Amino acid sequence: MEKVNAPKQFKKPKTNVISLERGKIPPQAIDLEEIVLGAMMIDKKGVDEVIDLLHPDAFYKEAHQHIFEALHALFHDGQPTDLKMVSYQLQKQGKLAAAGGDYYLIQLTQKVSSSAHIEFHARIILQKYIQRSLIKISSEIIEEAYDETTDVFDLLDQAESKLYEVTQGNIKKSSEKAQDLVVQAKKKIEEISNREGLSGIPTGFEKLDALTSGWQPSDLIIVAARPGMGKTALTLSMARNIAVGQNIPVAFFSLEMSSVQLITRLISSETGLSSEKLRTGKLETHEWEQLNVKVKGLEKAPLFIDDTPSLSIFDLRAKARRLASQHGIRMIVIDYLQLMTAGSTTKAGNREQEISTISRNLKALAKELDVPVIALSQLSRAVETRGGSKRPLLSDLRESGAIEQDADIVSFIYRPEYYKIEEWDDEEGTPTQGQAEFIVAKHRNGGLENIRLKFIGELGKFDNLESFDFPQELHSKMNDDDSDQIDPSHLPPASEAFGTPISSSGNDDDDFPF
Question: Which CDD domains match (predicted)?
Answer without folding.
Answer: DnaB_C (cd00984)
